[in-house]
Amino acid sequence: MTLGSLETKRLPAGSVLVVGAGLAGLYLALKLAPRQVYVLTSRRSSVGSASAWAQGGIAAALSPDDTAEVHAKDTIAAGDGLVDHHIAHILASEGPDRVRDLANLGVPFDRNDKGELYLSLEAAHSMPRVARVKGDTAGAEIIKVMVKRAQEADHIEGLIGWRAESLLTDGHGGVAGALARNDEGALLGIEADITVMATGGVGGLFAVTTNPRTARGDALGMAAVVGAKMRDMEFVQFHPTAIDIGRDPAPLATEALRGDGAVLTNAKGVRFMPRYHEQGELAPRDDVARAIFAEIEAGRQPYLDCRKAVGSHFPEEFPTVFESCMSAGIDPRTQLIPIAPAVHYHMGGIATDSYGQSNLDGLLAVGECSAVGVHGANRLASNSLLEATVFGGRAADYINGRDWSEKKAGMIRSQPWLSMGPEVSQSLRNAMTANCGVRRNAAKLNKLLAHIDTLIEQVGRANPLIASKMIAASALAREESRGGHFRDDFTKMKDEAVSSYITYDMLD
Questions:
Q1: Which pLDDT does position 44 carry in this prediction?
Q2: What is the mean pLDDT of residues 281-287?
Q3: I need a labelling partner for 64 at 20 to 30 A (CA). Which of 82, 226, 458, 463 fits?
Q4: With 70 as the cut, is the pLDDT of residue 48 above it?
């Protein structure tokens, strides 16, 4: 079968195409056994996925003193009024079993002398509940285990070296697979009954980010042009403490450092957070990010002081941060770490139900590219890896529990893929950071939308441009400040908390 001059591949009936190989995609794939799964990934491993870069760990109510109810309460509070309470309770109640499942799969979580999980405290959590792996290497170690298990699984086949560029439709309002390009430029139409987007976030759309530069919201653009509904696109989380050493992406100084007692200071070692928030360094991320941004705007370089809290234990307790600092000539055991806010996580994405199902038949989404309603306006620290496993697992249950025999895949239409090129890409990134960053206003956002339209006129509706326009348009429409979205022309929060939704046809 052909689509124009393209080579095509029809996956076996009832099998699943997973686009992306981070934690959400691989956990889903493993849980789909024995159903046949095809994982589309441009890399031979997942070290480039954002999951592998997660430092803090995975949050869950795992201690005798903790409960799912308290974890859900913290999640709801951090989300600034937009968290779906039912979804938050699903996350918190199913979370502990998912963490235990990861341990059974071989994830070497840190434990004390009694063999109990070592749980650390992070900002906006009411108690220690973050399970860590080898200090600050949780994401990398978890992904390493997931990749190994996926490679060992007979029901999983990797379509390695391919990058999805657009989604295929079935002519009945549903999705029928994806169009992909390999490293040599060849195109392949992959026809599938079930397609799951698990591609990560949007950090690569911004000039300063802790995410892989390839995380550019491509899944959002692909899904939008075929009719998928997007939710809460304006809510972008800026991590307060990216290490400010001029690298792209910026290395991350995990929030666990502040949980262990590190403090934010000026160049003289004087703390400034108590002037901004009563919780100081353990305030919600958006508050800390804005405080640090304010210090930078005032011409005062902010620093993270770990000398007393961590000191000589840095190499073994936080090896990733230690290595990043030392490579830049900074010894965090004795020196202050220069920091700046950076795009870290996108709370918005493809709108789904609690099982990952979008508004389009045959299209599901899990992980950061989805928006199930669990993060609201501001994600609670270390809930991201938990979301990937809880809702990745639920999506697998949904797929395995549904009869897909009437789903008729057929490649009817594909949105042409367009490359932006490095100059257009950098222009977009600079404009997004300047106009849709930590502090926003109508003038900046209108300027950004005009700039994106100019870029679209130059290169066409490339996926990152579509994703960026939806973020900017949603930010302009929300005339309030809430969570990660701060408008200096609308500084107050509205009494009514309402999630936003946007579709492709609303952009024109």
A1: 52
A2: 86
A3: 82
A4: no
Q: CA 241 to CA 255: how far, in whole Å?
A: 8
Residue type, 93: S
pLDDT, position 139: 75
Q: How far is the C-alpha of 483 from the C-alpha of 203, rounded, in Å?
A: 18
Residue in this structure with the two tokens 């073994």, named with its chain if needed:
316
Our CA dihedral for 205, 207, 209, 213, rounded to 10 degrees, sits at 60
CA quadruple 469, 482, 275, 76: dihedral sign: negative
- Tokens at residue 185, please? 């430029």
Of the candidates 389, 308, 306, 483, the one whose C-alpha atom is nearest the C-alpha of residue 138 is 389
Confidence of residue 2 (pLDDT cuts 50, 70, 90): very low
Q: Which residues, other chains included, contact 334 with Cβ-Cβ below 8 Å and sequence gap of 6+?
A: 307
69-83, 150-164, 178-192, 445-459, range with the lowest pLDDT: 178-192
By the 8 A CB rule, do 222 and 463 touch? yes
Q: Which two tokens stand for residue 364?
A: 């599901």
Axis-axis angle for helices 463-477, 218-225 (nearest 10): 90
Confidence band of 416 (pLDDT split at 50, 70, 90): low
Is 10 marked active-site? no
- Position 410 scores a pLDDT of 59
Distance CA 363, CA 343 (A): 27
Mean pLDDT of the chain: 92
Q: Which of 132, 163, 285, 379 is catalytic?
A: 285
DSSP string, 359-370: SSTTEEE-GGGE
DSSP 427: H
Domains of the chain: 2-233+347-411 (3.50.50.60), 238-343 (3.90.700.10), 421-502 (1.20.58.100)
Beta bridge partner(s), residue 179: 166, 189
Tens digits of residue pLDDT in 114-132? 999 999 988 789 999 999 9
Angle between helices 421-435 and 463-477 (to 10 degrees): 10
Amino acid occupying residue 159: L
Kindly give the pairing relationship between strand 187-191 and strand 175-182. antiparallel
Answer whether 237's CB lies under 8 Å from 484's CB: yes
Instruction: Give the Cα separation of 486 and 473 in Å (integer).
Output: 14
φ/ψ (deg, to 5) at 469: -65, -35
Cα 276 to Cα 439: distance, rounded to the nearest angstrom: 16
